[in-house]
Amino acid sequence: MNNIDVYDIATSQWYKQSTSGPTPKIRVNPCAVTAAAADGSSYNIYMFGGQNLTPAGEQTQYDDMWILSVPSFTWIEVDASGQSVPYGRSGHTCDIWNGQMVMVGGYVGDQLSCESPGIYVFDLSELEWVQQYTALSAGSASNGDNSDASAASSEGASTDSSFNSTGANNPFNQHRAQMYEGQNFGGLQGSYGYQVPEAVIKIIGGDRDGGATITTPVATATAGPLATGKPVTYTVTSAGATTTETSGSTGGTNGNGSGSSSDKGDSGPNIAAIVAGVIAGVLFLLVCYLLFCTYVYRKQLGLYKRHVEMSQRQARGEKIPAIAGLLATDNSDKTSSERRSDGSPHPAASGEGSKYSHRYTDSGVTSGSGSGYPSERRGSSTEDLLAGQEPTFVGVLLNPRRSLRVVNKD
Questions:
Q1: Which of 5, 75, 67, 74 is nearest to 217 (CA)?
Q2: Are the beta carbons of 44 and 18 closer than 8 angstroms?
Q3: Which of the given ranges, 22-26, 109-113, 119-123, 339-343, has the highest pLDDT on average?
Q4: Where does residue 377 fall: left (phi above 0), alpha (psi -120 to 50 degrees), or beta otherwise?
Q5: Entry pTM
Q6: Is there a smaller number of Cβ atoms within 10 Å at the N or the C end of the chain?
Q7: Which residues contact 78 (CB under 8 A, 6 or more apart)?
Q8: How confident is the model at residue 311 (pLDDT cuts 50, 70, 90)?
């Protein structure tokens, strides 16, 4: 079992398709041609040669022939034992005409300086390397003429067994029943005279003229029309430049080359994308809020430390400058209630009072509760800037407005 890349012309889409049977080794630069059965029930891709890329410097040129039969997607190895097979090669060219493959040139390795003759012919119907090319388009046709007549009969075309494929009546060298006519471009060119080989018939059924019994992939297709069983349809917009997939396979493209986000014509909202966008937006707002609270907390903590420092300096009787929003008085402005008669600081002011605490307001220092210490200099606002406690980050998160108001008073 192996996967190959298949290009769907109708949808302009690549997808993977599983194949059955023994598979060839991975290689690069082989040559390949495709021949059609007379009734179009199967198309057989013949691949010859190519080379490996690893290990570096030890490339091997292959000389084996493989057939990939579609639509069964089955690999078939050609038994060329007993035949005079050309040297293994890569980078060569192959073309099909009159049911025969003509191979020219290629790199055969550095062991051979000059290859002769360099041109080879392979009979696709008999699976044999032959010594000469047979031109069926001149004179009386052979090899595929009777099969073409039979196929033509099944298609309602002329059953004239004396039909000769010439450049005038069959310029694309197609089967009689698959010839170009009017708007119908017919079958594959070069297939005139081709008959399905026995090695392929054993796998896909039918006979030399076609009639394959296996007409679907042996391995289930992963995407594309072969998976859905329906062709892809499109709706052209009024601009004429964009097409929208409305049914069929997944992963189609629109007219401007971009992929369609709809897999079966569903143009509804993408719920998963909306939910993801909402979650991302909420997380972004949360991060912004945490950064804001961090900023306010740092500012408030700095303000608290300055308050503590100034209160300690004032308690020691040191002269401090007046700062708006902080302590508005210095040592010389203390009232008699804050100093003793001998000029030393009041015990409560120096922290000796067990129940005294400083309160800092817009208008300066006010007294707290304590025995023998009067309440005075109360500001117009009774709200303490810091409530006498060191700020916490959790407190900022729970009450950012109050914390911001404290910071703004600095």
A1: 74
A2: no
A3: 119-123
A4: left
A5: 0.52
A6: N
A7: 64, 65, 66, 67, 127, 199
A8: confident
